[in-house]
Amino acid sequence: MAPIKPQDIARGQAAEARFQAWLEASRFPYFYIDQTMATFARHLRGDLKRPDFFVGIRGVGLLGFDVKAKTVYRGQIFFDVEEVRRLANFGQLFNVSIYFACLQPRGGGAWWAWVPDLALRSPAPATPGVFAVPVRELQLVSFREPFDVALSEALRR
Q1: 63: left (phi over 0), alpha (psi -120 to 50) or beta
Q2: What's the confidence (pLDDT) of residue 137?
Q3: Residue 1: pLDDT over 60
Q4: Are 113 and 121 in contact (CB under 8 A)?
Q5: Which of 44, 48, 144, 153 is the most exposed place for a label (fewest CB within 10 A)?
Q6: Do residues 45 and 103 make contact, with C-beta atoms less than 8 angstroms apart?
Q7: Positive or negative, the Cα torsion across 99, 105, 15, 124?
Q8: What is the pLDDT of residues 37-69, one digit of tens each?
């Protein structure tokens, strides 16, 4: 796996901060997950990826969210096949439903993609390590609404 560029790290951290601020404003309980290797079982490091956030839903349990700064290209968002596989493995092993929360780097729209749905896709023919997903197939989310409104809409899909 290629090293992540510093500017991409900064974009990802900004997206995570926006997501966290939204959870705070919505007054939802959450955990922001430490992604350092020392906090992860050594024998699972190549097979699993942790989501960035766990959000507590009263009477239901936890939902995982892996937050990404994603730019829409030609009406699509691109996901790394290996990352989807590793998140799906995590969800199955720990019995937790995981979503990608894709935030545009310059603000504006956000989309949720349920990881198990992505894991069933075939990679893009031109780029075998990537899933190309039209945004019309994803759940559009507004940070102007509370988290529970976005969640309710996502669960209806």
Answers
A1: beta
A2: 93
A3: no
A4: no
A5: 144
A6: no
A7: positive
A8: 777 778 887 789 999 999 999 888 999 999 999
